[in-house]
UniProtKB/TrEMBL annotation:
<dbReference type="InterPro" id="IPR008538">
    <property type="entry name" value="Uma2"/>
</dbReference>
<keyword id="KW-0540">Nuclease</keyword>
<dbReference type="InterPro" id="IPR012296">
    <property type="entry name" value="Nuclease_put_TT1808"/>
</dbReference>
<keyword id="KW-0378">Hydrolase</keyword>
<dbReference type="Pfam" id="PF05685">
    <property type="entry name" value="Uma2"/>
</dbReference>
<keyword id="KW-0255">Endonuclease</keyword>
<feature type="domain" description="Putative restriction endonuclease">
    <location>
        <begin position="20"/>
        <end position="175"/>
    </location>
</feature>
<dbReference type="InterPro" id="IPR011335">
    <property type="entry name" value="Restrct_endonuc-II-like"/>
</dbReference>
<protein>
    <submittedName>
        <fullName>Uma2 family endonuclease</fullName>
    </submittedName>
</protein>
<dbReference type="GO" id="GO:0004519">
    <property type="term" value="F:endonuclease activity"/>
</dbReference>
<feature type="region of interest" description="Disordered">
    <location>
        <begin position="1"/>
        <end position="21"/>
    </location>
</feature>
Length: 206
């Protein structure tokens, strides 16, 4: 659950006010000038974030920047500020302040307190901001799931939904293969998270 911080003023806040929030591990975002505070991520959430960031970073062409937890201003008056769990940009980070240009991909990892926010609130906010691709990763169920949403005429449409050991493949923002199971599973995840490339099995049997 997100909560309003008790020490913030009643006036509408902007990103400038975020400089005064405590460095306590929690996530501070702005929604229409109101401060939303989320708890620090739990270990499973952090594992998914770390593995996905590593995998996308290893896969991305050089012109892309893969970042965990970047601050993004979603409107011109800087009263709507979000921190995606992970985002991919096709331009360099700003020299100071936060991003104010849409990433080409935003990823949210669902936690118990973020189900409504990630699946509904941020879905509408990210679409309005023009983020072309939005992934929602659900690590709460027995099988890890991933939903890929693509922006069409200003609205997200579901492009793919995979679970467990199914292989997710996409070409947006760049070609990538991903097996959701290996976002959390123990074992040699680095070598298996990308799935088995087409023809690889036949090649290894020769």
């Amino acid at each position: 659950m997100t909560t309003r911080h008790p020490d913030v003023p009643e006036r509408g806040l902007t990103v400038d006010d975020l400089a005064h929030t405590p460095d306590d591990g929690r996530r501070y975002e702005l929604v229409d000038g109101r401060l939303d505070v989320s708890p620090a991520p739990k270990p499973l959430h952090s594992v998914v974030d770390s593995r996905l960031t590593i995998h996308l970073g290893n896969t991305a062409p050089d012109e892309f920047v893969v970042l965990s937890g970047p601050g993004v201003n979603l409107n011109g008056d800087r009263t709507l500020h979000r921190i995606p769990d992970l985002a991919v940009f096709d331009h360099e980070p700003p020299e100071e302040g936060y991003f104010d240009i849409p990433p080409v991909l935003a990823v949210e990892i669902v936690s118990p307190e973020s189900v409504l926010r990630d699946n509904h609130t941020k879905r509408h906010e990210y679409a309005a901001f023009g983020i072309r691709s939005y992934w929602i990763v659900n690590a709460l169920a027995d099988k890890v799931g991933l939903v890929e949403l693509r922006l069409e005429d200003g609205v997200y449409q579901e492009a793919a939904q995979v679970h467990g050991e199914d292989v997710f493949e996409t070409d947006l923002p760049f070609p990538v293969r991903l097996v959701p199971h290996w976002l959390t599973a123990g074992g040699p995840w680095r070598g298996r998270i990308g799935g088995e490339a087409p023809g690889e099995d036949q090649a290894t049997q020769r």
